[in-house]
Amino acid sequence: MDEQLLAEQFETHRTHLRGVAYRMLGSQSEADDAVQEAWLRLSLSGTTGVENLGGWLTTVVARVCLDMLRSRKSRREESLEAQASRPTAIRESRPDPGYEALLADSVGLAMLVVLETLAPAERVAFVLHDMFDIPFDEIASIVGRSSTAARQLASRARRRVRGRTEVHQADLIRQREIVDAFLAASRGGDFQALLSLLDPDVVARADSVAVRRGAVAEIRGPEAVARTVKGRALAARPVLINGSVGIVVAPRGKLLFVIRLKFKQGKIAEFDVIATPERFRQLDLAVLSE
To answer: What is the pTM of this model?
Structure first.
């Protein structure tokens, strides 16, 4: 096939392929690398014997992403320790931060954070099946497992994404309302609204890594806490943490802080700001249903 025609056909699938890769990798720059690799493989092999080009390209991108996730996992300890020593700004080379922020919002920052906790094969199986409705027979060939095993991978990932609930549903709904109101007031700089959501004896504590990233070690009292968070929380989203509602701060899906909350009589009484990688791994993070 003529290379120009081949390139034109590939371009019709690029947006879909970037979407698949981004949900697997959580990074626009890495997603673009995966899509570019798919193009290189297509340009070398051509379309001979390919009946469904979109499906073939999706499979190629998924396999590339799985390799990247496995490579990332093998580097994770070093990466997390390096990340812990970074200042607050997320330093990652990317061609278009604004576009990546848009992508993160479309996927859901909390979802990207939770996906990051999955094993590579679990993440691939979950994304392909639950987000793109790819049959398990096709997923099986990508992850190198049987169709039944691929189904189990997605099921296990789904349970992780949904999480467990330690509080009654009515309490969970009320917690979500409080946290949503708190984040809205923080973003909007509404000092009085913040005060109304904080317990008179509220305390906010940050671990040592969070302090190195700019957090204050301890803040006591609603006025002091409200002044600290006023006008912030742009990259914060509610999430389920160990079965109750908390907050993640994740610019463009890159986890910076996890904030565990304690509630008292309908108000926030305690903030536990976590940025230490070892503590991240001990938490059960899940996406809150809308």
So the answer is: 0.80
